[in-house]
Amino acid sequence: MKIRTQRPTVLVLVVTALMIGTTNFSASSRLACGQTVGPSWTYTGSLNEARTGHTATLRANGKIAFTSDRDGNREIYVMNADGTNQVRLTNNSVVDDHPTWSPDGTKIAFVSERPAGGFAIFVMNADGTNKVEITPIVFNATAYPIWDAWGMSWSPDGNRIVFQEKVEPSPYPAYPNDIFIVNIDGSDRHALINGPDDERQPAWSPDGSRILFSKQVSTFYHNLFTIRPDGTDLQPLANNPGDTDLSATWSPAGDKIAFQLFDYANFENIAIANADGSNRFWFDSGSINPDFGGRDKPDWSPDGNKIVFHVSLGASGTWDTEIFIKNIDGTGLTQVTDTNGNNFKPSWQPLAPMACPNPIDCADFFVRQHYRDFLNREPDDAGLAFWTNEITSCGADAQCIEAKRINVSAAHFLSIEFQQTGYLVYRFYKAAYGNLPGAPVPLRFSEFLPDTQKIGQGAIVNQAGWEQVLENNKQAFATEFVQRSRFVSAYPTSMSAEQFVDALFANAGMTPSASDRTAAINEFGFGATTADVAARARALRRVAEISTLAQQEFDRAFVLMQYFGYLRRNPNDAPDGNFA
C-alpha cells in the first residue's frame, strides 16, 4: 500500500512557522529513548529490514478463532492463519461455542452457558480477558457441533450483533429459529424477522446496508435472502431449485458470498456466488473426501484471497472435524488443525480498519514517523503519548490540528536528542569542509544518516548514564571522523596547530573570539605538527560545538533537515535541480 504523503506542504508550513516565531519549545522536549538503527516501518509498527521509500505494509491476515472439544468440552481457541500457536481462550466446564470476531478484530463474541443456568451471548477481548454477558438466548447445546448450524454477526460499526435464537416453546413443526438484533451493551433487543418459517445464520454486509441469512422455503430446503437492518425490503437471492443454502458469509469487499451448498448430489460442499446469488460455482467439492458429513462454516480471509472452513472427516459416530484453508482460485488446500477431538466453526479475524484514509493524517502515525525520520528510532511510550496528545487535544478543530502538527514537527529538530546528534553531525561537516560546491549546505543525506546513527547509538536521554554514553559516542565519532581519507587530505598532519584551527574556522565561516581560537589550538599542546589524532578530534569538536556556529547555521540546517527527514533526499535531487 503506497502512502500518499503531503510532506512538501508540511515542510513549507514548518519552515514558515519557525521564521514567524509560532513554534516555541524548550530544548528539553519529550523526545528521549533508545536508538533503532535503520529507519524503516510498516503501518502496524513492525520494522522491515530496509527502508526504500515511504511504503507501509499491512499484516496480510489475522488470527483464526474456532471451537474445539479436544480437552473434553467445547472451548474457544485462536491460532495463526497457518495453524501454528493454537491457544485456548476459554476454560469452563460448560459449553463455549461459535466464536465471531468484531469488525476491528479486538473482540470475540461467543455463546456460553451462564453460571445461573441457560445460555447467553458473551463478548471478550481477543486474548480471552474481560468476558461480558450481552444477552441471554435459547440455545441447543445438545446438538452435535457439526450439525449445529447456529450463527451471529457483528454490525460493521461494532455496535450491534445480529443472531438467531431457537423459539421455545416451538409453534412450528421444525427448524424453530428467528433472527434478533441487540446492541453491544445488551439494550434494544428486538426481532428482525420472525414467523412460521425458520430463519438462521445471519451475516451483516460490510457496508451495513443488508443482512444475509438462510430462510426455510419448504420442509427440507433453505435458500438465501437479504433484508435491511430495520426489517424492511426482504429480498431472495438467486438460487437453483432443489438446493439448500446455509452458513453464508460476505467477502470483505461485499461483492461475493461463500456458503454451504447442499444439493444431494454433492452433499455438503462450499460454493461461491455473486452478492445477489448469481454465478454460483463450487469452491470446494472434490479436493477432500470425507467419510461422513461435509464442509461447513466458510469464512473469508481479510484480504479476500482465501476461505477457511471445517470438514467432517470421520465416519458416523467418530466425526473428527478439522479446519482447512484454500485459496479462492482453487489452489493451496491446507489442513491447519489435526488434534484429538474436533476443531470447527472457524472465524477469521478482520484487519483493523485504518483510522485515517491516509495514515500520515493520523496523529500517532504522524508522531511515530517523526521519531523514525528525524531521530532514527522507534518512539518511547511516554514521548509518543505526549506528542500524540498535543495533536488529538484539538478535537475536530482543523486549524488547531494544523498548528499542532507544525509545532510537533519543529519540536523534533529542537529536541536535545537531535541537537546533540543530527545537528552536531551537520556542524562537524560545516567546520571540516565548509559548504558543498555550489550548495549552501555542508553535507549530503547519505553522509548525514549513518553518522547521526553513530552518535545516537544507545544514548537514551534521561535514563541513568545517558550523558556518558552520548559523550563516549561523540569522542569515538570525532576520532573516526578525523581519520577519514577526505579529512586527512584536507588537513595534512604537517599543518601547524594554528593553521589547522584557522582552517576549521574559515570553513565554518566564523571569525572566532580570541579565547575560542586559543582553546582549540591548545588541544595540540606543544607539538610542532598536528599528527596527534586525539588532539585533531578534540579541536574539531571545539569548533563544531561553539554556540555561535549553532546559531549561525540554525535556519539552513532546519530547512535541510526537513528534506532529510520528510523527503529522505537532498534538496537538489529530482524532481528539484537546485537549492532555490
What summary fits the major beta sheet? 4 strands, antiparallel
N- to C-terminal distance: 33 Å
**Secondary structure category:** alpha+beta
Q: Kindly state the percentage of residues in helix.
A: 25-40%
Looking at the structure, the CATH topology of the largest domain is Neuraminidase
Which CATH class of the largest domain applies here? Answer: Mainly Beta
What's the CATH H-level homologous superfamily of the largest domain? Answer: TolB, C-terminal domain
Taken as a percent bin, the fraction of beta residues is 15-25%
CATH architecture of the largest domain: 6 Propeller
| Lateral strand order in the biggest sheet | 3-2-1-24
The radius of gyration is 33 Å
Count of beta strands: 24
Number of helices: 13
Q: Estimate nothing, just give the exact number of structural domains.
A: 2
Shape: elongated
Mean pLDDT: 83
Please give a quick description of this structure:
With 580 residues, the chain is of the alpha+beta class. It contains 13 helices and 24 strands.
Q: Could you characterize the architecture of this molecule?
A:
The structure is a single chain. The protein is α+β, with helices and mostly antiparallel strands. It folds into 2 domains: 63-348, TolB, C-terminal domain (Neuraminidase); 415-566, no CATH class. It is 27% helix and 23% strand. The strands form 6 sheets. A 4-stranded antiparallel sheet has the order 3-2-1-24, with no helix packed on it. Helix 6 crosses helix 7 (445-456) and helix 8 crosses helix 12 (533-544). The model is unreliable at 1-60 (pLDDT under 50).
